[in-house]
Structures are given as structure tokens and as C-alpha cells.
């Protein structure tokens, strides 16, 4: 589970599994804008495949989606704390407890939960969200901030499904082509650099061989002259 918290609001979200990709839809302006900013950052870092490692399906982006629904496109800012936690699979001792409890696992306590850092694979991930928004990633050492939920209401928000928007699909197709071109250009550039390096290495090896040959030749002449 993932949590965004500011002074007046707590947003709890989970990762999304299955179904269509909602986070690139124009109807989710906040999630789309943040993901576009992330992709620009990853391209600037010259990542080989600058897309979200988990297809933007993490709880962080689901929470951004909900935040955008509630506040017309708002995204996390410097007043926001963010944290993701998960409960590890039961060990041998807990499995025995579950068995004795007719297959029911006891409710999790704070001690059972493990903080999950924002993802950041080779392509890119949620670790860029704090950098781009100023949100603080909470840890066990994070100092609790004051908050006031007076007047707040508990509510749930579904993520879809959406009807496909022709304009959104067109933009997605254009972005896919642009990304594919970037990948090809990046691959070609890497191959060209590798080829150039191999050529330089070969030239340097030939130069060293010639130098060693000349050195041996001079040594041989000197030896013959002395004899």
C-alpha cells in the first residue's frame, strides 16, 4: 500500500494490476503530466529505455491519479510525505499460527510492515517523483508532521474503466513512435561508440606492435654493432 499525506489529507492507494493503462490517458491530467516530466528526466539521463519500469502502475502513480481527481490535476508537492509499505509473506512460525486459526492471518501491526523504497529500475521509476515534486519520502526515522483532518470525509475512488479517447490514443501513438525513434537512435549511437572504441583499440594495438618491433630491431642492431 502507498500513502500520500499532507496537512489536511491522507490518500491511501495500491498498485494497479491488469486492465488498460490508465496513467497515460488525457483524462488523468495529473498522472500524465507527472509521467511526462519523469520521462523527460530519464531521457536527460540518457537511459537506454526511458519508460517507467512498472508501467506507472505503482501505488505512487495510483495515488497521483486519485489526488488529481480530488483536486483538478494537483500533484504532490514539498508539503507532502509519501511512503509505500508491504507485509512480507508469512514465515514458518506464522504459517503454524495461520493453520491453527483456520487459514486466517492475523491483522498486521506496525512491526509487521516493511517500508518499500520508490522503484527505480534501469528504465526509470517512482524514485523520480520526490525529485520533481519536492515530496518527502518517509522512513522509520522521519519526524511526524502535524495534520488536521477536521472536516475531511472518507471516500473511495475507482480508477476506471475509461472509454477510449481518440485524441488520447492519437497522442499515445505519437509518443510511442517518438519513444521508438529515441530507442533506435540511442542503440545506433551506442553501437557507433562501441565500433569507434574497437577501431581505436585496434589502431593502438597496431601502434604498440610497431613500436615494439622498432625497439627490438634497434636493440638487435646495437647488439650486432657491439659484436
Automatic annotation (TrEMBL):
Source superkingdom: Eukaryota
Compositionally biased intervals (Basic and acidic residues): 138-148, 166-227
Region described as Disordered: spans on this chain: 95-227
Record's protein name: Uncharacterized protein
Species: Bionectria ochroleuca
Amino acid at each position: 500500500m502507498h500513502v500520500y499525506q499532507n496537512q489536511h489529507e491522507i490518500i491511501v492507494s495500491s498498485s494497479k494490476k491488469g486492465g488498460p493503462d490508465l496513467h497515460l490517458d488525457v483524462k488523468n491530467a495529473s498522472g500524465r503530466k507527472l509521467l511526462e516530466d519523469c520521462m523527460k528526466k530519464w531521457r536527460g539521463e540518457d537511459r537506454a529505455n526511458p519508460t517507467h519500469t512498472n508501467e506507472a502502475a505503482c501505488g505512487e502513480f495510483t495515488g497521483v491519479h486519485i489526488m488529481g481527481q480530488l483536486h483538478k490535476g494537483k500533484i504532490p508537492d514539498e508539503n507532502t510525505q509519501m511512503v509505500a509499505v508491504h507485509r512480507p509473506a508469512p514465515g514458518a512460525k506464522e504459517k503454524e499460527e495461520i493453520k491453527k486459526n483456520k487459514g486466517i492471518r492475523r491483522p498486521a501491526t506496525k512491526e509487521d510492515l516493511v517500508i518499500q523504497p520508490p522503484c527505480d529500475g534501469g528504465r526509470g521509476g517512482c524514485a523520480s517523483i520526490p525529485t520533481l515534486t519536492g515530496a518527502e519520502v518517509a522512513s522509520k526515522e522521519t519526524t511526524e508532521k502535524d495534520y488536521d483532518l477536521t472536516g475531511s470525509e472518507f471516500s473511495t475512488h475507482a480508477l476506471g474503466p475509461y472509454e477510449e479517447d481518440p485524441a488520447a490514443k492519437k497522442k499515445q501513438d505519437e509518443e510511442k513512435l517518438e519513444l521508438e525513434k529515441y530507442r533506435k537512435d540511442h542503440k545506433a549511437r551506442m553501437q557507433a561508440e562501441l565500433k569507434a572504441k574497437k577501431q581505436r583499440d585496434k589502431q593502438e594495438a597496431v601502434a604498440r606492435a610497431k613500436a615494439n618491433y622498432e625497439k627490438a630491431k634497434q636493440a638487435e642492431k646495437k647488439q650486432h654493432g657491439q659484436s
